[in-house]
Amino acid sequence: MKITDIKGTVNLSNGVKMPYLGLGLYKAEDGQEVINAIHKALDAGYRHLDTATYYFNEEGVGEAIKSTSIAREEIFIATKVWYTEQKYEDTKKAFYSSLNKLGLDYIDLYLIHWPHPDYYLEAWKAMDELYKEGKIKAIGVCNCMQHHLQKIIDLGGTKPMVNQMEFHPNLVQQELLDFCKKNNIQYEAWSPLKRGGLFEAPTLKQIAEKYEKSVAQIILRWDLQKGVVTIPKSTNPERILANADIFNFTLTEEEIHTIDSLDNGDRTGAHPDHFLEYFAKKNKS
């Protein structure tokens, strides 16, 4: 990944340019909150917005896009199909519902949010058709381990172009990262800051002091230098700006390895092989 500035991109396997820094919109309230956050991010130079059916804010995202002076083709918009809608016909309905809520003619990146073990291959077939029809510029997955990816590859159609995973210094999953790189699947980080759970880590604080940066900025720069697209979520104007202030320093190879060594397999969310149980418990609580 060649890192330049906030508007820098990576080339996906089909040549589509994906901005390597984006604004995550999980838990951004639909309406004025998400609109304000997007406008602030776009004004700061962000060109990548990441939402999902499950975030219940696609209409607000669409309104923000409609009300900005920035041309539609300059903004990279990702959304996702939820695991309850991954039967073939349901996926197509979910896609058109998202397209309608966003008020768009096409979506830049459409992702399987969590791979339902019984239906995600059906979802992929539906998405592949929509991609070939030109409704989607790129297709990919979230929360897919190597065995999920291999089953999609074995279908023989379009391969996933992106795999969005929980990724932070405590959860590197280097083998999966290497598998994606080998298969030209762009790795992308959700929860890159571990929901603030790494801000007091002594190793990261020491590196942050050296560069006169925050721990968050060190982590986000590490993401990019690992070749990982990152989408920190925030609706706070100051944090949105701070998360983009990562282009005036470069971590050394030794520092990259030091941060890698913090990997202990700790997750903030579900393991992809057990997410159904995770959400069942979450919905009961």
Outline of this structure?
Substrate binds at residue 113. With 285 residues, the protein is α/β, with parallel strands linked by helices.
Q: Overall pLDDT, averaged? A: 97
Named at the architecture level, the CATH assignment is Alpha-Beta Barrel
Q: What spatial form do the alpha-carbon principal axes imply?
A: globular
- Category from helices, strands and their pairing: alpha/beta
The strand line-up of the biggest sheet is 3-4-5-6-7-8-9-10
Can you summarize the main beta sheet? 8 strands, parallel
The run of helices and strands is: EEEHEHEHEHEHEHEHHEHHH
Q: Would you tell me which CATH topology applies?
A: TIM Barrel
Counting H and I runs of at least 4 residues, what is the number of helices? 11
Q: Estimate nothing, just give the exact number of structural domains.
A: 1
Keywords: NADP, Oxidoreductase
Domain NADP-dependent oxidoreductase: 22-263
Protein name: Aldo/keto reductase
GO molecular function, one term: oxidoreductase activity, acting on the CH-OH group of donors, NAD or NADP as acceptor
